[in-house]
Structure formats: C-alpha cells, structure tokens
Amino acid sequence: MHQNTRIHIVVGIILLAIIGCSNMQTSDRRFSTPDGAVIPPAVIGETSAEVSDVRLGHSSPARAVVTLHAVGRGIAPEDAINKGQAILLGECAARANGYVKLAEKIHGVYVDSYRQMGRGVVDIEIVYQETQAWLRGAEVLEYKQIENGIFEAYMKVRIIVNQDHPLFQSGT
Q1: Which residues, in sequence order, are CB contacts of 48 under 8 Å at separation 6+?
Q2: What is the DSSP string of 54-68?
C-alpha cells in the first residue's frame, strides 16, 4: 500500500469514529419533497420544545418564543492532572456538545459525504457535517456524571422565530 492510501484510510477511520459518535447522539432527520425542498424535522413536540405565541402589534408579523432542549455529552480526558481538572474538562466537553445540538435544531445540518468502493466493499467513507448558529442565552440547567467518565449537560435556549421559520410552522 502506498503511504498516501494509508493516510487516507486512517483519516477515514478517524472521521467515521467521530461522526459515528455524533450521529448516535443526534436524532435530527431530514426529508425532501420531490421538487428538492428540504423538510426540517418536527422539533416542537418531538423534542420537548415549548411554544408560546407572541403577537407584536397589528403591523408586526406573527412570532413565537420557542424553548429548545438538548443533552450534550462529553468525556473526561484520561490524562487529566487531577480529578478536579477531569470534572471541569468533562463538563466543558458536554456543554460544547450541547451547544452543537442546539445549533443543529435551530439551523439544521449541512452534510457532505464521499464514499469510495472497490470489489463491492467500502474502502473509504468520509462524512462532513457542519452547522452554524449564534446562540445567545443558552443555559446549562444541570450537569450529571454518569458511568465511564461520561458527563451530560442538560441545556435549554429560548429563541424568537418569525412565522416563516420551520420551528414556528411545526408548532402551530
């Protein structure tokens, strides 16, 4: 095997492991209509989101205040200097994962994938996921440490969405 091929295989395996873990934690599924329009997941109701209708005068469009919840998961590093550092870093990782999940619920996920096959077997599979959102006011409600050094951060964020936003439409 060539050196470049080995590097691609190793990178592919690492990416699969990372993406596989993030996919296990995220239940965001998307479907599309025959004309190619993406239908976002029904966030409200299925993910314990709360909606309260806000009408801001006669000339303002209808808006809703939506509360989204997420559970972020992280792991304490094995090479932490002491138990206190391990706890702080585990909570930080869980909080960061919670931010990602909230951003995915608000703006969705861009997925780009590449698969190389040979002799009926997948040689390399690379999946790239991206989301981007400005989160203001996201709160950590509670941290929990569960087995195997895994930390969970229970989080929520309240956002105001216009009537044309998918979160508004799925809640009415």
Answers
A1: 69
A2: E--TTTSPPEEEEEE
pTM over 0.70: no
Site of tokens 């395996």: 13
pLDDT digits (tens, 9 = 90+) for 120-162: 888 899 999 999 888 889 999 999 999 888 999 999 999 887 7
- d(Cα 52, Cα 64) in Å, to the nearest integer? 6
How many Å apart are CA 96 and CA 75, to the nearest integer? 11
Strands (E), the chain: 31-32, 38-39, 50-54, 63-75, 110-118, 121-130, 139-145, 150-162
Tell me the one-letter amino acid at 145.
Q
The whole-angstrom separation of Cα 160 and Cα 133 is 14
